[in-house]
Amino acid sequence: MGGADVVRAILAGAVACVTLAGASGCSRKPVDPVAALLSELTAAAEARDAERFARGVSAEFKDAEGMDKPNAVLLLKRYFAAYEAVSINVYGVEIERGSSEARVRCVVEMKGRARKLPGLEGLVPPDAAYRFDLGVADEAGTWRVRSASWESTEPPAEAR
What is the pLDDT of residues 115-139, one digit of tens each? Predict the structure, then answer.
């Protein structure tokens, strides 16, 4: 899996899973910290703001292949720079909650519009779909993504 795939997975997985989790909440109910984290990650990704996104990722972060937070943020910056816009569709969100941690699973379809620069056409795909498994945890009152794994998939026919 190339660097762009890793960044796409981190971005799309964390961001997209939050979109549905946050959308199901009501402003009059107590704020769910997992949904709040995901909503913030979504907003940061839509703004293509890697530093803001990084605040929602644990210093202890490791992806399925051992990439740590500093390297993931560096790749995320490159990824954001390559795209003018990114949109996310999320399917099948499942959240298993504990008192200080949660597991989030979802399928994410991402579409992006690459910047019009020579050579980017082949390096940044216009769309992708992944099945994600995220570990999130409460770190002294702040919820962050601690782990991420994913696999490439096709969106369900009804979602296309």
Answer: 777 665 655 566 788 898 999 999 9
Residue type, 22: G
Whether 6 contacts 63, CB under 8 Å: yes
Q: Give the CA angle between residues 90, 111, 147 to the nearest 5°.
A: 55
Nearby residues of 29 by Cβ (< 8 Å), 6 or more positions away? none
The pair of three-digit structure tokens given for residue 35, joined into one six-digit string: 């949904």
Which residues share a beta bridge with 8?
A: none
The reported pTM is 0.74
Cα–Cα–Cα angle for 61, 64, 70, rounded to 5 degrees: 35
Domains of the chain: 3-159 (3.10.450.50)
Contact 46, 16 (CB under 8 A): no
